[in-house]
Design brief:
Distance between the termini: 16 Å
Structural class: mainly alpha
Largest sheet: none
Order of helices and strands: HH
Length: 57
């Protein structure tokens, strides 16, 4: 996989992050809130690692 493909996929992941944030605002999420929160944390780690690897992106 080349760098451009990785950059495109990270941009797609970043765009999906907003959906998870909106989902976290739902009052009736119950225990699913834990999974959504975990997904957000993992996305943030992935995005941070990407920015460290490709600082010009």
């Amino acid at each position: 996989m080349d760098a451009e493909t990785i950059k495109e996929r990270i941009k797609l992941i970043e765009s999906k992050r907003e959906s998870l944030l909106k989902l976290m605002e739902q009052p009736n999420l119950g225990t699913l809130r834990i999974d959504v929160n975990q997904a957000l944390e993992e996305m943030d780690i992935l995005i941070d690692e990407f920015k460290q690897t490709f600082p010009d992106a």
